[in-house]
User: Fold this.
Amino acid sequence: MAQVDKNLKKLGEFGYVNQNCWLAKSLGYPPTKRCQYCQSRFGECLFTRYLIVSIVLIAIIVFAVYILEGLVSKGVIISVFALVIVYGYFFDKSTEKIIEANFEQKKAKDALEKLNCELEAKIKEQTRHIREAYEVERRAHEELEKMNESKNQFMAITQHHLRTPLSSTMGYLDLILTNTFGKVPKKIAEILVKIKGATQGEIKIVNDLLDISAFQMGKNVLQAEDDVDLEQMIKEIFDSQAIEMKERGLYSKIDTEGDIPLIFADKSKLTPALANIIDNAIKYTKEGGITTTLKSENGKVFIFIKDTGMGISKECLGKLFSSTFERCSDAQKAFAVGKGIGLFLSSKVVELHGGKIWAESEGVGKGTTFCIELPIKNVK
Amino acid sequence: MTEKIKKKILVVEDDNDFRFILETSFSKAGFDVCCAADGLEGLNLVRSEKPDLIFLDVLMPNIDGIEMARILKGENIKTPIIFLTNLSDVDHIAKAEETVMADYVIKSNISVEQIIEMAKNKLGIK
Assistant:
């Protein structure tokens, strides 16, 4: 009995014992678990099968001995059956090994499946986390887009409302000044020209502010074209300032070192950007003048605008192109009025073209050189 | 007296002042001018007056300028259009150019003389 129990335990370890197995139950062996590998029912369980086969064989031997008694010697009958049993035992042992091997294989396969299931569950869990994170990000992105959209709408409305009255004012002034509503007396015409100038100044401020907003919103506001002639552009800027420079006794000189190639740029943005730097140079130069040098090197055009003006302290040099629109104290002393946005805008336009801008000065009273580097082809 | 130009210009502009300025300027330059205060009125005038050139505001009530241009394109009306706007947003320009190949003018950045010059160039008048 102890041996049977031991065997049962052993079989139980393999998981051969079925909780439905009546024999295991009747022997008091606790139906620990259902046979998880063979899923066998009564009669199919390996252990049950051994016992049934043994009982049947004993019954056959007894029956055969009873029938064949007298015909064949008992010894022969018993020997034959003993041989059959022994052969059957070893045969069954090998079968058992195969079954065990199969069970082991199934066990490994199940373990693998279990691992797969666990991995799958983990992947699902992680996928869920990723989806959730993605969802959060998507919502945030949507929010940002909405905010950006509102900002754009606000900008559009602001542009419209700021520019509409200015357009009408300019239009009416044009009509009056071209004598559309009757001959305008000379004195009034002079005043109207001043009003027109002031309105144009106002339009420039509005455009500057709108450009700043556009830059700060990261918009690419450039519409670049081929064959922009920088030398011609600079000449035209100086021409537009010729009267003022003459009145103030300032000279202007443009030097070119070799041929200056035409570049790929947005003329409508680059002209005011360069004009701004030149205007500043003129504004802060009391005597002497401005020398502009152009040269081309390594696919780039360099512009150096050198003035003989008040110069810039080292401390101020770093703040010149700041987006906080700070004005240097020296500049404030010289000119109380100034927005401090011009150089910031110029630097942004140059950067959008893929170029660089910087200023050099030996110090206060020693003049300033503004240096601009622009690529011939590349526009961001 | 300015010589009469046998070309008709349609001005579609919701701002009364700017519409008046353009109407007066074009008349003075010798053009035939008709005006509309919104896109809907503009569409009716394009169909009835058959202008040679349209100055079209972008932001307008009822039907805006871009929508009006799209409808005209749908009806295969190929009258050249010059958009008038106070928006310098490049996306808006792209949106308008996608609809029809059109010129674009920022109202506050251009003088009346320049607008008239532009109309003459567009119509091939010297």
